[in-house]
């Protein structure tokens, strides 16, 4: 009888502790953060998603032992993906509330994700998996978690962005199929998800990154700054350290410019300027931002060590820049590093929270 009473007592104690932990979790999840995040970043080898305030203080951490592959911010939500490549895991997306920092929902993904964009409560996602039909491209309804559409692309999709309620993607077909390499506009209301090439000229490689503003597409090409150049690329110089400006209305190339600094990677638009980080993933090294005047495409430069990823907070007029080599994030204002914090090895993607 005594043993039975001890057993019942242990069960009750376990339930009480469990309920208390659940209560704490719910309470913590329902409480807003004391300070609104200004930036979000992947840190500590991509195993942590951290929220930072405008002074670069960490106000929230979300850990993932399987590591996050990427994340994006739309409205008041962070959409973070786990590619499911670790044993016992499956591809998924976490939807996180920016105000409270708690995970609202976890969506199962049918394929290993490579890149994506969120528009009007739908996730437009490309996969790195290869099938006979091509590489999967699918649409997931955020509310229901169901896959609404599925098609296949003729090559690897590396960049997906939206502009004026349209989705744009880059496809690199490579090899003999390089005639299909381009930036494509997707008709999102089309049941078949039809793709339409944007650049009318025949290009052998898609841009490494692009940004669209005032119906102009500014494309940056990293190309082949060093190392072997594939035989199937007939004109490699055209796609090496280049900027291309395309009229979005008719797909015509307005101008092409050879950039002074090698390894242009990402491009963002701020007012009348374009900012490009010069950085090589292979060596994890770089030393500049290239700043272009959109009127005449003249260049100026800002020296900064290893600017792997960067973004700009329009409200505070500040950049956040990551350096994976020493695991630091830097806050840059008026061309000067005003703060630097250590966030663990191999910090990578950074995003600014844009309040409307």
Concise summary:
By secondary structure, the protein is mainly beta. It has one helix at residues 2-30, and strands spanning 39-43, 48-52, 58-63, 70-74, 77-82, 92-97, 103-108, 113-119, 122-127, 135-141, 147-153, 156-163, 166-172, 182-186, 195-197, 209-213, 216-221, 242-247, 253-258, 264-270, 273-280, 285-293, 299-303, 309-313, 318-323, 328-333, 336-342, 350-352.
How would you describe the overall organization of this protein?
There is one protein chain. With 356 residues, the protein is mainly beta. The protein has a domain at 37-108 and 308-317 and 344-356: Thrombin, subunit H (Beta Barrel). It has 1 helix and 28 strands. The chain has one helix spanning 2-30; strands spanning 39-43, 48-52, 58-63, 70-74, 77-82, 92-97, 103-108, 113-119, 122-127, 135-141, 147-153, 156-163, 166-172, 182-186, 195-197, 209-213, 216-221, 242-247, 253-258, 264-270, 273-280, 285-293, 299-303, 309-313, 318-323, 328-333, 336-342, 350-352. The strands form 7 sheets. It has a 4-stranded antiparallel β-sheet with strand order 3-2-1-28, with no helix packed on it. The longest helix has 29 residues, at 2-30. The protein is globular.
Question: How many beta-strand runs?
Answer: 28
H/E element sequence: HEEEEEEEEEEEEEEEEEEEEEEEEEEEE
Low-confidence spans: 1-30
Structural class determined from secondary elements: mainly beta
Strand content: over 45%
- Spatial strand arrangement across the major sheet: 3-2-1-28
Descriptive key words:
356 residues; 4-stranded antiparallel β-sheet; Thrombin, subunit H; mainly beta; disordered N terminus; single chain
């Amino acid at each position: 009888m005594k043993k039975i009473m001890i057993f019942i007592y242990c069960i009750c104690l376990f339930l009480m502790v469990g309920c208390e932990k659940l209560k704490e979790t719910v309470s913590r999840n329902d409480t807003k953060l004391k300070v609104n995040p200004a930036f979000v970043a992947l840190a500590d080898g991509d195993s942590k998603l951290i929220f930072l305030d405008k002074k670069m203080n960490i106000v929230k951490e979300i850990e993932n032992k399987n590591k996050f592959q990427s994340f994006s911010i739309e409205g008041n939500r962070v959409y973070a993906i786990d590619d499911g490549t670790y044993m016992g895991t499956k591809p998924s997306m976490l939807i996180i509330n920016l105000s409270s920092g708690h995970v609202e929902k976890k969506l199962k993904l049918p394929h290993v994700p490579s890149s994506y964009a969120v528009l009007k409560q739908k996730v437009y996602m490309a996969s790195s998996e290869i099938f006979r039909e091509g590489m999967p491209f699918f649409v997931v309804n955020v509310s229901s978690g169901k896959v609404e559409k599925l098609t296949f692309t003729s090559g690897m999709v590396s960049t997906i962005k939206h502009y004026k309620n349209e989705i744009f993607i880059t496809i690199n077909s490579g090899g003999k199929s390089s005639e299909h390499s381009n930036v494509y506009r997707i008709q999102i209301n089309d049941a078949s998800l039809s793709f339409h090439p944007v650049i009318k000229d025949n290009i052998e490689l898609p841009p490494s990154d692009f940004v669209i503003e005032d119906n102009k597409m500014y494309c940056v090409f990293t190309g082949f700054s060093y190392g072997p150049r594939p035989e199937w690329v007939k004109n490699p110089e055209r796609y090496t350290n280049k900027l291309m400006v395309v009229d979005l209305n008719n797909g015509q190339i307005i101008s092409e410019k050879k950039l002074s600094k090698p390894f242009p990677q990402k491009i963002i638009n701020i007012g009348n300027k374009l900012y490009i980080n010069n950085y090589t993933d292979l060596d994890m090294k770089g030393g500049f931002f290239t700043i272009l005047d959109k009127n005449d495409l003249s260049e100026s430069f800002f020296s900064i060590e290893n600017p792997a990823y960067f973004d700009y907070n329009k409200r505070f007029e500040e950049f956040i820049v990551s350096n994976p080599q020493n695991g630091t994030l830097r806050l840059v204002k008026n061309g000067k590093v005003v703060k630097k914090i250590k966030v663990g090895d191999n910090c990578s993607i950074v995003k600014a929270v844009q309040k409307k």
